[in-house]
Amino acid sequence: MKVDLSRIAELVVGDTQADRVVPPTGFTANLTLFSAAAMAFLVVFALALSMATGRLADRWGSELARSSTIRISAPDGQLTAQTEAALRVLETTGGVASARALDTEEQMALLEPWFGPDLPLDTLPIPQLIEVIEEQDGFDADGLRLRLTAEVPGAVLDDHTRWRRPLVRAASRLRSLGLISIVLIGAATAAMITLAANAALAANTQVISVLRLVGARDAYIARAFVRRFTLRALTGAAIGTALGGLAVFFLPSAQPEGGFLTGLGFHGWQWLWLLIIPPLAAIVAFAATRTAAGKTLRDLT
Amino acid sequence: MGAAVIELENVAYSYGGGELLSDISLKLQAGSFHFLTGPSGAGKTTLLKLCYGALVPTAGNVRLFGKDVREMERDDVAVARRRIGVVHQDCQFLDHLNVSDNIALPLMVSGRDLLGEAANLNELMNWVGLKSRASAAPPELSGGERQRAALARAVIMSPDAVLADEPTGNIDWEMSQRLLRLLVELNRMGKTIMIATHDLALIRAAKTHVQARVLRISNRRLQLAGADL
Predict the structure, then answer these.
(1) Are residues A293 and A222 in contact, defined by beta-carbon separation less than 8 angstroms?
(2) What is the DSSP letter of A24?
(3) Count of domains in chain B?
(4) Same structural domain, B150 and B195
(5) Helices assigned H by DSSP within chain B
(6) Which chain A residue lies closest to B157 (C-alpha atoms)?
(7) Do B86 and A213 touch (CB under 8 A)?
(8) Are residues B153 and B165 in the same domain?
(9) Nearest-angstrom CA–CA distance, B184 and B202
(10) In the 3-class helix/strand/coil scheme, how is B159-172 assigned residue by residue?
(11) I want to staple A234 with a disulfide (CB 3.0 to 4.6 A). Which of A48, A73, A177, A282 is the partner?
(12) Residue A99 · residue A90 · CB < 8 Å
């Protein structure tokens, strides 16, 4: 599609003479401004949700997909021997990049959120955990399970698939919901601006009739309305985006114990996404008003 | 006489199932002066609207400057209207603009630079006697002033034709004579004039200044009515 820069410049700079021929309409002006601001505010949050769930899905999808855990449950006297045996099996398993047994402090840290900081781990029958990091192509999980069953009877391989998949799916769906929300907000903005433009056009049929009487082209009449609504939507969306951006910025920062909700927001370059909201709102308003004006002018004889 | 500025050929116009005008043929030659008369509701305004392309005939052809209205794009009709000044009985002003801006409206919509046209605008305001009322709002004008402002707006683009619909309907005799003199003066400049009116006294007064054809709409048809006036 060819973009006519001169027409965009004309839309932004405007024609002061053409702007004057349409009377100012305070109510629809404020309505459009408010709607655009409110919608942009909501888009910022939908975008933040989408970004946060995207990050979550990526992390769960990539980082956790590369790691597995082997849990060894054995009587006290055999735990160390079985752990060593499992590590030996892993050393000779293709696709395993590294494997290490978690030390007591690491295991305590894992249990601390549920049992508190002063857990006497040495007095409890806690299984030993081995963290397995996979190579790019991964390992044969079924083959490893068979070997472990034969050589380390107390070992259970958990490749995280069982709980990782539904989490990734949930995060992906949340991201999709965020994107769908943005599309719906855009459509609602278009509908509201169309209604406001139709109201303004209907209130100005006498003006349109006079303009036609003196030889105004439909494009000239439409442009006067389109420019007005486009600029209002741009201004409103800029205000809404700024407020939404500030609200997201001042949300509590991401803490491990806060989980997903405190991670809602933008990281680094993701803040740049906010810059496209006002121009997008202006494009939506431009298209909606242009369509409404074209239809109204065609219908008016 | 020059070429036809506006030409109607076997034109009929129907609205709401009823035929308002039937088999109308008319040529407005360049520099001609016409009166269009007939009782109220006879279709004078409809005929004028057909003459400037605001309505499309249901039968027959309307040609503006040689081009058939049906074959013209909407934008072409808009551009043709800049060559036809129209004065309505109710004037049709934009009340949020002052008198000067209303008169300059055709310049604005055609993209002309108002600063460059300031001298012409000033001269025109002077010609219609509204120089002192330039910054007034249209509702502040008297009936006669409104008609003169509407005439000034109709001629600011120096059109080939001026069509006036009952221009003296809301003003007194003295003011209607003043308006008539302005229209006669325009005709002497070579403009085609057509005035729709039921004011026979105005037509008689005009005929002492200008050679005018008087047409009457009767029973949906157009007749030459000069002999009985």
Answers:
(1) yes
(2) P
(3) 2
(4) no
(5) 44-51, 74-81, 99-103, 105-109, 118-127, 143-155, 173-188, 200-207
(6) A214
(7) yes
(8) no
(9) 12
(10) CCEEEEECCCCCCC
(11) A282
(12) yes
Give the DSSP H or E segment for B192.
strand B192-196
Q: Which two tokens stand for residue A57?
A: 């899905």
Distance between CA atoms of B192 and A2, rounded to whole angstroms? 45
For B57-116, the pLDDT digits (tens) are 999 999 999 999 999 998 899 999 999 999 988 888 999 999 999 999 999 998 888 778
Residue A215 to residue B82, Cβ atoms within 8 A? yes
Using one digit for the tens of pLDDT, what is the confidence trace for B158-216? 899 999 998 887 778 888 888 899 899 999 999 999 999 988 888 988 888 888 999 99
**Same domain, yes or no, for B75 and B16?**
yes
Spatial separation of the C-alpha atoms in residues A142 and A157, rounded to whole Å: 9
Amino acid at B21: L
Q: Residue B29's domain spans which residues?
A: 1-83+160-229
Report the length, in residues, of chain A: 301
Structure tokens at A60: 């769960």
Nearest CB to B94; choose among A24, A207, A301: A207
- How many CA within 13 A on the CB side of residue B6? 30
Where residue B194 sits, what CATH number does that domain have? 3.40.50.300
Residue B161 CA from chain centroid, whole number: 7
